[in-house]
Write a structure and sequence with these properties.
Shape of chain B: elongated
Number of domains of chain A: 1
Largest sheet of chain B: 9 strands, mixed
Largest sheet of chain A: 6 strands, mixed
Structural class of chain A: alpha/beta
Order of helices and strands of chain A: EEEHEEHEHHHEHEHEE
Radius of gyration of chain B: 31 Å
Largest interface: A-B, 39 and 34 residues
Distance between the termini of chain B: 40 Å
Strand order of the largest sheet of chain B: 5-6-4-7-3-2-8-1-9
Number of helices of chain B: 13
CATH topology of chain A: Rossmann fold
Helix content of chain B: 55-70%
Oligomer: heterodimer
Distance between the termini of chain A: 13 Å
Number of domains of chain B: 2
Chain lengths: 231, 411
């Protein structure tokens, strides 16, 4: 699964969790390479390790063994601060739940990641950018409302806009349409596809929905912690 | 958008938690501020009063010793007289260790005679021998001798220098005003040269509604200044043995006893304060812990979006600093208002002089209490902030129940 000039390379990834004194493998011998701008979907049953894999790629969970390289650099072979900056500057997350910060307005939620990206703070007109992203997801009129005033679909779209604020190289979406109705699910997926087409983002989508997975250019399947190509 | 703004929004969002922490902190800082203010006011007032009283000892009729202490400590005007003082004065001046002796005459002003906040004590002094008010006049008014119709007034007398004041039909010119010392006996007093006082007494029959019946040889007390190396207690015993109808009141004892009157309950309050401080810290810790525990998923999201350990730690500390600061300021204001409202009651109840600190000291004390509030708040939240700041993002986002080490097998 190695692609020449790969953007992301997962090498021999192993992740174990301890439960009741026993080491349970969540991921086994994962080897994967993704080219820049690829749209990959990962499907699999609950507990198959999809979210764990996405978290490892996103720099929020250290593997038990193996390495994750982005642009040839092992992201876990860096300091905590470097890893945080990597997340801020290179990764856009769309989580299982909308995960908006409840004390901030919609616009402020979009502005939040800009605090941590170097070169993104200061005089840059983030506000205008945030409003443009909100407009793009059709929620410009909701810029000044709080997350509790949004519907599930709206919150998910805000989450998507927030993931794009720092112009990430990698977009990781973990069940982005998990608890949405069919109509809203379609809207969110259309948006994701549109963003992917309009940019050079490497896009990893984790879903249990086979129909959504089919939209990806490359389909992978997780089963009991092992990754296989789904052709 | 920056972390300060996020912290401020978090404080506003969590109104109930914020109010609870602000209230707990304001009680804490209010108590620290009030106690410090009273301690400071007491110490300052005792020091200034001690200087202003000037004499080391006051010799009064034995039966009026308690009344004298009451007059000095509460400022309630009162008078009594003794008429056989000349032999005693001569004897005192020949006694080893005595530097100076001067007489004073207490006269209670007629009701509504003077424009003070409370009753006024007229104190006749002998400019030739006085060592209490005369040096002040020399230093501040640069007059070797004041005329018999010139008076010096305490800080609470409303009329100022250059004003004229009538007592028992006699008009006096105010030539000096003393600085406040927090002791009503001094702050409400009017110092009249003995000659002027005697004239006022003599003419009161014709000029005033109330006639003063004080005989020319009568005085209220003899003030004694001792040399530095003289033992006060031994001097007092010696005089009282020779003159059983007289009592020697040591001014330092009056003030130290007065200080003790308030210090004892203050010490009790301080002990309670330590308990209160511990309880408040515990309450703040519990409130803060509950509120942060509820927000751990959000903290995880923040870290996933790029916040590092230090950012989370900084944001949480900013939140508690804002709350502690607000509580501290509220407590300082309340403490100041309460102490001001009840200072007169404290002075009467405990018979102590109290002089509120000047503006600079008040500002310094306020900043010190504010700093103490901030430190207490940070101390109470330190453990929780540190704990959640270092938990790995993945586990925070799952509610923090699964913590690194316990469930993460990275061996």
């Amino acid at each position: 699964m190695t692609i020449p000039n790969s953007h992301i390379i997962l090498n021999d990834i192993q992740k174990n969790f301890m439960a009741a004194g026993e080491s349970i493998p969540a991921l086994n011998d994962i080897n994967l390479s993704l080219g820049k701008g690829e749209f990959v979907s990962i499907t699999g049953h609950s507990g198959s390790g999809k979210s764990t894999l996405l978290s490892i790629v996103g720099g929020i969970l250290m593997p038990t063994r193996g390495s994750v390289s982005v642009h040839g650099k092992d992201i876990y072979n860096s300091t905590e601060n470097e890893l945080a900056r990597f997340r801020a500057e290179k990764i856009g997350f769309v989580f299982q739940s909308a995960s908006l910060l409840s004390s901030l307005t919609v616009k402020e939620n979009l502005l939040f990641p800009t605090i941590f990206a170097s070169g993104r703070s200061g005089k840059h007109d983030h506000e205008a950018e945030a409003l443009a992203y909100l407009d793009m997801v059709g929620l410009a009129e909701k810029a000044y409302v709080y997350p509790y005033q949004l519907s599930g679909g709206e919150a998910r779209r805000v989450s998507l806009a927030r993931a794009l604020m720092n112009k990430p190289e990698i977009l990781l979406a973990d069940e982005p349409t998990g608890d949405l109705d069919e109509e809203t699910e379609k809207d969110v997926m259309n948006l994701l596809e549109r963003f992917h087409k309009e940019s050079d983002i490497t896009f990893m989508l984790v879903t249990h929905n086979e129909e959504l997975a089919k939209r990806a250019t490359r389909r992978l399947k997780m089963k009991k912690g092992r990754l296989t190509e789904n052709t | 958008m920056n972390l300060y703004a996020v912290a401020a929004k978090n404080v506003r969002q969590n109104a109930l938690r914020s109010i609870a922490i602000i209230v707990a902190m304001s009680v804490l800082s209010g108590i620290i501020f009030s106690l410090s203010l009273i301690y400071g006011a007491l110490g300052r007032s005792v020091e200034l009063s001690s200087k202003r009283l000037g004499a080391d000892a006051m010799i009064v009729p034995a039966e009026y010793s308690e009344k004298t202490e009451d007059i000095i400590l509460t400022g309630r005007p009162g008078s009594f007289y003794m008429n056989d003082t000349e032999p005693l004065r001569k004897q005192l001046l020949q006694t080893d260790g005595v530097e100076a002796v001067s007489a004073q005459l207490f006269i209670v002003s007629a009701a509504l005679a003077c424009c003070t906040v409370s009753d006024t004590m007229l104190i006749g002094y002998e400019p030739e021998t006085d060592f209490v008010i005369a040096p002040w006049i020399k230093e501040n008014i640069r007059k070797d001798k004041v005329a018999s119709d010139e008076i010096v007034v305490g800080a609470n007398i409303l009329a100022g220098v250059g004003g004229r004041q009538k007592f028992y039909g006699q008009e006096f010119l105010i030539v000096g005003k003393l600085e406040p010392v927090g002791m009503p006996f001094i702050d409400n007093a009017v110092y009249i040269p003995m000659l002027g006082a005697r004239k006022m007494i003599a003419e009161s029959k014709d000029k005033a509604l109330k006639t003063l019946t004080i005989r020319p040889e009568e005085v209220t007390s003899l003030l004694v200044k001792l040399k530095n190396d003289t033992a006060l207690e031994r001097f007092a015993v010696h005089v009282e043995q020779d003159h059983p109808n007289k009592k020697v009141i040591l001014t330092s004892s009056i003030l130290s006893n007065a200080k003790k009157n308030l210090i004892v309950p203050l010490k009790g309050m301080s002990a309670l304060f330590v308990l209160q401080w511990a309880v408040s810290l515990f309450l703040i810790w519990v409130i803060y812990k509950i509120s942060i525990d509820e927000r751990r998923t959000e903290l995880g999201v923040m870290k996933a979006l790029g916040a590092n350990k230090a950012d989370i730690w900084k944001m949480l500390l900013l939140e508690i600093s804002l709350l502690s600061g607000a509580g501290g300021i509220a407590g300082i204001l309340c403490g100041y208002l309460v102490v001001n409202a009840f200072s007169s009651l404290l002075m009467i109840t405990y018979k102590v002089p109290l002089l509120m600190p000047d503006k600079i000291h008040l500002v310094v004390l306020s900043f010190a209490v504010l700093a103490a509030s901030l430190c207490s708040g940070i101390l109470a939240s330190l453990f929780t902030a540190l704990k959640w700041a270092k938990v790995e993002t993945f586990y925070l986002m799952r509610g923090g129940q699964v913590q690194k080490g316990a469930f993460d097998d990275n061996s």
